[in-house]
Amino acid sequence: MPMTLRPYLTLMRLDKPIGIWLLFFPAAWAVAFTAPHPAPLMLLMLIGALLTRAAGCIINDLTDRRLDAQVERTRHRPLASGALSVRAALILLAVLLILALGIALLLPPRVFLLALLALPMIAAYPWMKRITWWPQLFLGLTFNLGALFGWLASGAPLSWPAFTLYAAGIFWTLGYDTIYAVQDMADDARVGIRSSARAVGRWLKPFVAVCYLLTLTLLAVTGYGMHTGLAYPAALLVAAAHALWQIRQLPCDPARAGMIFRSNQWFGLIVLLGLLFGRFI
Length: 281
Known about the structure:
78% helix; mainly alpha; 281 residues
């Protein structure tokens, strides 16, 4: 890979695709619940997740570049290390946002309006760790707007199952991102960054357990409201087993926390496959 491209790809976190999948799955769940022919919409949701996550990472790194330089896990990021200039990052951010809005314009007008609402939330997220102990909750509110994007993109009205799905995603994010925050607890305490992991402290395990229980309950309620096939509740049982495996690993060292966090791509995939099998096979 040319050395001139590597800092840009790293800035967009394309070397760490887990964030793309975690952003994509709530939107894909919504499409699988509502769209008669989900494949084309899911492809658009995936492209949108890639662009939006990349843009969000740049916004985060622009805001946190001085803090990142003081944290071991993030000090080698392109802006924190000086490998890229702020100007270069802003140009790339503009390109990504234009492309993302272009995807939104291909969808119903309500999706575009929701995208405009999401932009200030994405911009505000990096500041949450400075003003609240619950930036992971704000991330959940922002990250899972994809569930409403997918619902509206299929042409379905925003009925109550859309909002129970959105709430399920919020609690899922609160759980897995609290695990993610375990990686930086020592550095966060030293430089004054707040997180739900630091807020719950020794109650980490029961806190994540409650988050995942609420996630699964709300996913089940959504499925009941949308009259899914038997494959969906079976998939939720498998997803529950995976969530239980995560909980049993806690508390854990920072390296293992990262591995547990990344495993949530399988949770999202299990739920999606259960939906697709239940509806179409």
